[in-house]
Amino acid sequence: MSWIKKNALWCALGGAVVMAIVIWGTWQGVHYTSTTEFCLSCHSMRTPGEEYKTSVHFRNASGVRAECKDCHIPPGVFPTLIRKTEALNDLYHTFISPSIDTPEKFNAKRAELAQREWARMSANNSAACKSCHSYEAMDHGKQSANAAAQMTAAAAKDSNCIDCHKGIAHHKPDMSSGFRERYKQLQQQGEKRSTATMLFSLSEKTLTATAGAPAGKALLFPATQVKVLQKEGSNVQLEVTGWRESKGRGRVITQYMGKRVFSAVLDASLMETVKDLQTQTDPASHQEWQQVSVTAWTSAQGLIDSITPVWEYSDQMLQSTCSACHSTPPATRYTANGWIAGLKAMSTYYRLNPVEERTLLKYLQTHASDVSEPNK
Question: Which of 19-28, 92-101, 156-165, 317-326 has the highest mean pLDDT?
């Protein structure tokens, strides 16, 4: 029995030593494969590696360098092991089915990769970021006035760092391909002649007093509801109903009284077609407004029979445009008039053409905090 006990003891000790070696070796392997040198040794990491080396996380005034693991591996033993296990998928895409091994392939998948990483960081409330950047350790007195205001509000909510700090170490992706592809589909839908009486404009459209007349300065704005009166060849006669201020020439037609949600702008040729429907005083500004209808001609293309797909496209544009820098704000953040300044303040950070910007603005305005129509 003593021999059995002695062998059992040696087996237990041997097993403990082997287990210790395995654990130590595994952890050393995890540590080594988490180094920046290892990460950038992969051919597929050449593009993000070059971007990282030009970022403030690689070289800065304080001389503190954030390594790859500091951003991409959350702190803690179990979160680290889970993340390393997930990364085994990279072996397949590196050695079996290369998907980002050239700059062209990487850029084609940049948006997908970025959104996946942003989602990971959001899921753990930016734990990796906060292992270095602590709200409690921030001295707002040493920050700029704007940064101090933003960081104070973020600290109060324990906000996700990634909500506002995308593109710190790598170039931000162009998120426009999705909503622009959706718009092409809407254009194809708008080329089909609808038999509906009430239609909605997809984009800006010129308005004229007679069918086929040369275009002037009159415009129908995107996402505006119109009533079809008659058709003549490739043109349709429309009726636009909206509001205008009683003072002035009254060439700007808005969707709501007292709110700068533009439906159309008229020129001299269309002023004679304007019919006054009623007059009211805006309770907010105490200004007098007239509800009017305008009759005009335009091309039959670019009109669809439902506003829903336009708003779906606009929401996709909002999500894509805003998520490249921060979390998407709710449309109720501002009033309809407040969104004009709100969107303009962000105009240097997104890449939208004027028509896209007007469509997005109208979507935000018609879903703003002070608009409660059931059919926005």
Answer: 156-165
Residue 159 — φ and ψ, nearest 5°? -65, 155
CA–CA gap between residue 326 and residue 239 (Å, rounded): 40
Confidence of residue 9 (pLDDT cuts 50, 70, 90): low
- Distance (Å, whole) CA 42 – CA 36: 11
CA distance 107 to 113: 10
Mean pLDDT, the chain, rounded, equals 87
Instruction: Give me Rg for the CA atoms of the chain.
Output: 30
CA angle 98, 104, 110 (to 5 degrees): 80
Contact 111, 173 (CB under 8 A): yes
Q: pLDDT (tens digit, 9 = 90+) per residue, 84-107?
A: 888 888 877 777 888 888 888 888
Whether the pTM exceeds 0.85: the reply is: no
Q: Residue for token digits 């006035």? A: 145
- What are 306's two structure tokens? 């439902």
Reduced to 3 states (helix: H, G, I; strand: E, B; else coil), residue 275 is strand
Q: How far is CA 67 from CA 70, 71, 184, 197, 363, in A?
A: 5, 7, 42, 61, 41
* Contact assessment for residue 361 and residue 335, using Cβ atoms and an 8 Å cutoff: no
**Partner residues linked to 74 by β-bridges:** none
Handedness of CA 348, 150, 70, 94 (dihedral sign): negative
C-alpha 113/C-alpha 105 separation (Å) is: 12
**With contact defined as beta carbons under 8 Å apart, do 102 and 48 qualify?**
no
Contact 47, 114 (CB under 8 A): no
